[in-house]
Design a protein that fits this description.
single chain; alpha+beta; six-stranded mixed beta sheet; about 25% helix
Length: about 150
């Protein structure tokens, strides 16, 4: 979805993960927010959706999980990984989407660096998110420096 009246960012959202990989009516969709429109972000979401619920052996992504993108988020960015996080940028109302037979949980794919992922593995997701918050990062700045 393109920028709207409340901001100037582009928001990309998966559609269909919930239906493909739900458990008792509860499933997950993913959100990525970017400063520009670029088909690459839709490709990243498609890769994430396939990893999460497609293929012969799906890997269920949960809050706090991460996955490598295999290349920078945008050209020149040091962010080459995604952290599955709450949709802090969009507010808590976006996290749950009621459906007739359950709900979809929308989780944010936050681009992070390899050093931040290494820190998360050693100290936990909450510690990394605290560092990101304290550093007041701009989560949609492809050129942002690593916090560790």
């Amino acid at each position: 979805m393109g920028p709207g009246p409340r901001g100037n960012l582009w928001t990309y959202v998966t559609v269909g993960c919930w239906a493909r990989a739900h458990h008792q009516g509860h499933g997950t969709e993913f959100i990525m927010t970017a400063p520009i429109s670029d088909p690459r972000f839709a490709d990243v979401l498609a890769m994430t959706a396939f990893y999460h619920c497609g293929g012969p052996e799906p890997h269920r992504l949960e809050l706090g999980h991460s996955l490598p993108m295999g290349e920078p988020w945008t050209p020149g960015s040091t962010c080459e990984h995604l952290l599955v996080s709450l949709p802090y940028l969009h507010g808590p109302d976006l996290e749950r989407c009621a459906l007739p037979d359950g709900h979809a949980r929308l989780l944010w794919l936050l681009p992070v660096t390899a050093s931040e992922i290494a820190f998360r593995r050693k100290h936990g997701t909450e510690a990394l998110e605290q560092l990101l918050h304290e550093a007041e990062i701009n989560p949609v700045d492809p050129g942002r420096p690593a916090v560790v």
